[in-house]
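**User:**
Everyone, produce one record:

**Assistant:**
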Amino acid sequence: MRLERKIAYALAKELKDITQEAKLEALAILTATGDRVAFYAGDKTANSTELSAIGAALVAAARLALERLAFSPINDVMVRGKNGFLILKSIGDFHLVGGTSDIEEFKNAIAVLSNHAPTIADILSYVQIDEEDVVPME
């Protein structure tokens, strides 16, 4: 997804702030359909396209489960693996994704992502998404 220069700079500043406040090994912003807006994976050998699609699928599955249980709307999806943690924060038509292998940093990352989410949502409010890319909310 291409962004206007002003939006790209504002996002870059916010993402830089996040990485300074939380030791995340991966950080991304993606659309509900899995289009990558921004992506950083440090020294991890990660395919950004693949991880963006997987992140969108995880959020879609979680959203559906929450709707069926009447726990909507979705706020966060947290996935725990043997060697790390993934946080997916819903921000409207976009998702903020962070990953870390440190449990203490995971706790901090949740707070940091939550603190920065409103600013990122405001920045992304100026981004046009094609109608065919929007996942309908039921």
Remarks:
- The helical segments are 5-21, 48-68, 103-124.
